[in-house]
Structure formats: structure tokens, C-alpha cells
Amino acid sequence: MKPYNIIIKPVTDEAGNYFSARVLEFDGCIAAGETKEEAHDNIYEVLEGFIEDMIEKGEEIPEPIGDEHFSGNLRVRLPKSLHKSLSRAAKLEEVSLNQYIVHKLSK
């Protein structure tokens, strides 16, 4: 399997305490588990199903978001690793990179 970006975070809500996992490259590819390890295992099962369905439908499978996607070039030069980190954080917040940076800088 390709190195997709898996995000796992703890959740506390009306359902209790658990871990939520998602794949950044696939909208709606989400799983949960009582432990981080269980969420990790479950997300790969869901991901396999997503990829199988996309292949059956003839849809293009997204490539993993990797370092090569981050030029580090905004209006200000910054390290690629920081650009990647900011981009992932913005995706998690479901806002544009520009909105995320402006929000963080305005604090």
C-alpha cells in the first residue's frame, strides 16, 4: 500500500472516549477504535475498501501527499517541513492554507 497520510486523534463525545482515524487523501475515509492501534488497523481496512470501490468504478486513485507537493514558496520562504505541517493542519481544520496561516499569525 502506498504511504498515505493517516491522522489519528483521541475523541471524547457522547459516545465516550475513542480514537478517530482518517486518510487525508480520501474524503470520507474514516474509522474509529477503542485504542490508537485499533483505529490504525480499522482505517487500513476502510482504505482498502475505498480503493477497491474506486477501481471497480474506474475512478482515479489519488497519490499520497508527500514532500514533493510542498514547494515552501508562499510570499515568505519557509522550510518544506513547516509548509507540509501547516498544510496538514489546515486540511484538518477544513480551511485554506492561507486562512489557517492568517488565523495562527493573528493570535
UniProtKB/TrEMBL annotation:
A Pfam family the protein falls into: HicB
UniProt cross-references to InterPro entries, sorted A to Z: Ribbon_hlx_hlx, TA_system_antitoxin, TTHA1013/TTHA0281-like, Uncharacterised_HicB
A GO BP entry: regulation of DNA-templated transcription
Protein name: Predicted nuclease of the RNAse H fold, HicB family
Species: Lacicoccus qingdaonensis
Organism placement in taxonomy: Bacteria, Bacillati, Bacillota, Bacilli, Bacillales
